[in-house]
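residues and backbone:
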Amino acid sequence: MGSATLINANRLWTRLMSLAEIGATPAGGVNRQALSDGEIAAWRCVIGWGREAGLTPSTDAAGNLFLTLSGRDRAAPPLLVGSHIDSQPTGGKFDGAAGVMAALETVVSLAEQGEKPARDIIVVAWMNEEGSRFAPGMMGSEAFTGERPVDAIRAARDADGISVGEALDRFHQAFPDVPHRPLGFAVGAYLELHIEQGPVLEAAGRTIGVVTGIQGKKTFQVVVEGAEGHAGTLAQSERRDALAAFAKVAAALHAEIGTIDADIKFTIGRVTVVPNAPSVVPLRVTFSIDLRHPDNAVLDSAGTRITALCQENAPPCTATVTPLVDAPSNAFDTRLRASIAEAAREQGHSAMDILSAAGHDARHLAKICPAAMIFIPCRDGVSHVEHEWAEPDHVAAGASVLAQVLRGLARAPAVEA
C-alpha cells in the first residue's frame, strides 16, 4: 500500500492546526498546560474526532486519555501509539500534539479502510509530559508504568497551590461519560512520533529520524536558606544573604558540572527569591537543576557532585538538595527501529539514526514493552517556543511512516521484548 493511501495528510494538518487554536497565544504559540481548561477543551476535540471514527474513549487514575480501535483478539496486549497534548506556557503547535494527531490519523485511516487489526490499537495522550504547571513532568506515563505512585503525583502542587489531585478530580468531572480503566496494563508495543526539538535532521537534510534512544536526565530542587535583614542597617559581615550564596553555588556548579565534556547539558532554569523585596536581604532562594548526558556513568558521576558543590559553597547559608527525576539513558527496540527505517526507505523519505536529547514518555514505555520513536525536523531546531514550526510535508511523512509500521504490527503476533 502506497504512502498516499495510508493517511489523509490534509485532514491531519487541519486537525493539528485546529488543536493549536485551543490555548493559542498572541504570538502564534500555545499555552495549554496540564489539567487546565485548555486541555479539557483539547480532550473534547480529540475525543470527538475519535468517536466519529468509532474509537472508544477511556481514561485512568492518572488522567491519561485512551482512544481504542477494537481488534479481533480483545485479550491480546494492545498496541499503543501517541504522545501528549499539554504544552509549555509559551509553547508551540507541534511539541506532543503532532504525535497525538499523527497517531489519531493513522488509526482513523485504518478504521475507515475497514481493516480489523489483530489486537486493539489505542491512541494515547499522556498526562503532564511537559512538567510546566506541575513538576516534574511525564506524570501520566510514569504512573502508567509504575515509575511513580499516584499518591505522590496527586500531592504535587502548581505555583498557585493547586494540587494535581484537585486538578485531576476537576478534570475527570468534566468527562462523566468517559469510563475509567485500571491504571497500567500489558502493552504489545509503543510508538511515538515527535518533532526532533533539535537541529540535526534539518542540518542533515533528512525527513525521518530513527530514534536510537534518549539521553539520561536528572533533576533537582535546591533550597538555599539564609536570614532576612534590613538592606540599610544590616552590616555585610553579619549577613546570611541567600541570594549571594546562590550566586556562589551557581557559579561553582557551572564551572565544574557545566564543563565536564561537550555532551553535558547543565541548566538552572527556575529561580525563586523570598521575600523578593528591594530593601530586604533575601531569606531563601529555591532553584531547579536540569542535568543531561547520553552516558549514564558520566551522568551519575555529575549527579553525585551536585549536593557537595551546593553545600560547600552555600555558607554562611545552608543548602538542601532534593533529587526529583532520575531517568537513565535508554535504547529503543532494534526491530521497531528497523521497521521505521524500512518504511521510510520504501516511501522514499530520507532517514538517519538519531539520539534524542530531549526526554519523552517513550522512555518509560520502553521499560515495559518494545518501544520506538520517529522524529521529524523542526525549523531551526527550536522547540518550547511560540515560533516552533514543522513543515506540513514533514508531518505527513512522519505520520505515513508511523502508519506503515503500525499496520505491520497490527497484522502480526505480539512483539516479544
